Amino acid sequence: MAWSPLLLALVIHCTGSWAQSVLTQLPSVSGALGQKVTVSCIGSANNIGIFGVSWYQQLLGKAPKLLMYSSSNRPSGVPDRFSASNSGNTGSLTISGLQAEDGADYCCQSFDSTMDACDFCY
C-alpha cells in the first residue's frame, strides 16, 4: 500500500462577538493513515483557561459535528480515536489511528468571560 498523507484543514482564526479574534489555530496538519495527529487551539485565561474547549468537525458540504466538549468529554457515537485535553490556555484535539474519513475542517470553541459570548471558528 502506498503512503499517502492526509491533510486536515483547520480554520486559521476563530472569532467571537464583534469579530474579535481570541482563539487561534495553526492553518493545517497532515499525517499518514494510521498515524496520530494533534491540532491545537490557543486562547487565553478568559476562555480556554476557565471554560475549556469544545471541538467540531466539518466535512465538506455537511453541518459541523460536535466531537468533544468540556475539554475531554466525547459525545456518544464519536469514535474513541478522538480525544482532547487542555493545558493552561491551550486546547488540543488528538486523532489516533488517522483514517481517510478524518480529512475535514476542525475548529475549537470556548466561552469568553470578558465578552460574555462564545468564541467560535467561522
From TrEMBL:
Keyword flag Signal: yes
Pfam families named among the record's database cross-references: V-set
Residues of the Ig-like domain: 5-109
Matches recorded under SMART domains: IG, IGv
Source superkingdom: Eukaryota
Database matches in SUPFAM superfamilies: Immunoglobulin
Keyword Transmembrane in record: no
Signal sequence residues: 1-19
Coiled coil: none
Keywords recorded for this protein, A-Z: Signal
Protein name as it appears in the record: Ig-like domain-containing protein
Lineage, uppermost ranks: Eukaryota, Metazoa, Chordata, Craniata, Vertebrata
